[in-house]
Amino acid sequence: MRKRRIGTLVSSSYCIVHAILFTPSGTFLFLDGYVPPVVLSHRSKGIWFLLSSNDVTESTPKEQTHLINEDHATDHRHSKMDATSRFHMDMRRMLKSRRNSTSEDGNISTSLHEFSPMERRIRPTILTEDIDGAIRVTSMLRHMVNIDAATEESFQIVFQALVGRGRLRWKNRDSVVVCAADEVMLLMDEIWERQNGKVSTKTCDLALQVYAACCTPRGDRRYAQKAQKLLNSMEENGIIPSTQSYSYVINA
């Protein structure tokens, strides 16, 4: 690992800091050491980083240099996976913190005492707030995709959150009323393209479960058609369907 000396020590009182900085292009820079409790600036690859003393914890004065580690390609891949794991932890932690607004099984639709996720006879409620965190984790996934840190597991976390919404609907950023299946259709196409059709049965089953939940006998049948198309694609690409896979398609 290559280490570079940066910055200037301008104070006799130091603070210990452990942090990860990354550039918009996805280059991860690791910060680990003692720095003065003042704003420190450093330029790397044309990008300036600012570190405030408010973000660190004071330690005893110590004459150490401030080191920043810039990894090689192999270390960078490892660092990216580490960052991905941190994102996943934050996503799961956030979803868990929202569960106090839902039922014991974590399903927001059943917590409203209106219908079960597979109930077809009652018109679904339109949500006005992201009380279960599904929209939040979707935004986090989008950020991970933008910095090339998303994995199939990232998509699975979002799919699982959307499964919990059942047939509930909400307005997206364009004020269009959508349901979980609308979101999953776009995300499923994206992960399928990203991985060239090498998607796990678990991911496919989560998508099929959402399609089945959002289908209605009198409504638009595109979700049922999408479920059948996904099942066909699984078989064509060597993805072995589970018993649940067929069950979801039948229910759709």
From TrEMBL:
Residues that span the membrane, as ranges: 12-31
Key word Transmembrane helix present: yes
Top-level lineage group: Eukaryota
Assigned keywords, A-Z: Membrane, Transmembrane, Transmembrane helix
Protein name: Uncharacterized protein
Organism: Nitzschia inconspicua
Lineage summary: Eukaryota, Sar, Stramenopiles, Ochrophyta, Bacillariophyta
